[in-house]
Design goal:
4% strand; single chain; 51% helix; two-stranded antiparallel ribbon; 267 residues
Length: 267
């Protein structure tokens, strides 16, 4: 999709193949209660910017190229923590050590060091949830996930602060008018590449802390040459780095992630 298409919250992709909705509901009956799904791309490659690509999806029939994860923890606020973890640079760095070919199979996924729900404190979730929701809820087909997050925030002690944070985010970056009544969920967030890059960097920095990394260890994961000098033979995210050098004239992600780390350090 182009940037203009991504900015259209009403745009949806038309599937090539269709299956009856009843078949999907029957397959998931008793196993999944939500009107959204969690899946990952089953094919990867060393030439990709990222090895592991996990995503929240609208409720639909899905082919075998996107394996679906049916989780015992289905609360949307904890799924935000999971998606932040699975989408982080630290997690992707570890994944690269595990993948030897192009098939990203379940047996590989089951070996990966995913942070469990109890690794996230209330403070962590209050930081993560509004950022993940802003990244995910950019189109109407993800409204069910936004509804679930909003409803669950009313049930947790830290939810009021997150709802206020989200309301401010909607006022700053909504794709349409924000209703005055907080009981009415606003329209999707506006797709803004630079704003999204900053949010992703903030999540990367927080997840790195939850994994127990130091700043220098995070610097190594972003670019070993930054720690050991340009003659160092190893590399981590070379494709991402090269693409950003061409696009921005700098390793954009590295700068944003370390700036986010430093903001947290001195906050």
């Amino acid at each position: 999709l182009t940037a203009a298409e991504l900015a259209d919250p009403a745009l949806t992709v038309t599937p090539r193949y269709w299956v009856p909705a009843a078949d999907v509901e029957q397959r998931l009956a008793g196993r999944w209660e939500r009107q959204w799904l969690v899946g990952f791309r089953g094919i990867t490659n060393a030439t990709n910017e990222r090895t592991a690509i996990f995503s929240l999806l609208p409720f639909a029939g899905v082919g075998n190229s996107v394996p679906i994860m049916l989780l015992s923890e289905q609360r949307a606020v904890f799924i935000c923590g999971l998606i932040a973890c699975l989408s982080s640079l630290v997690f992707d760095f570890v994944t690269r050590q595990k993948v030897g070919g192009t098939n990203f199979n379940f047996f590989i996924v089951q070996q990966l060091p995913v942070l469990p729900p109890d690794a996230f404190s209330a403070e962590d979730l209050a930081f993560i949830v509004p950022r993940v929701l802003e990244l995910v809820y950019t189109a109407w087909d993800m409204r069910p996930f936004a509804d679930d997050v909003w409803a669950e925030l009313a049930t947790v002690p830290w939810g009021d602060a997150v709802q206020r944070d989200l309301w401010q985010r909607w006022q700053a970056s909504s794709s349409g008018p924000v209703p005055s009544d907080p009981s009415q969920l606003p329209p999707p967030f506006r797709w803004n590449e630079e704003r999204r890059a900053v949010i992703r960097a903030e999540l990367d920095a927080r997840i790195a802390r939850l994994y127990g990394l130091s700043r220098d260890e995070l610097r190594y994961i972003l670019d070993p040459a930054d720690v050991h000098g340009p003659a160092f033979p190893g590399e981590t995210f070379r494709v991402l780095k090269d693409n950003e050098l061409r696009r921005y004239g700098e390793y954009h992600t590295r700068r944003l992630v370390l700036e986010a780390w430093d903001r947290e350090t001195y906050a």
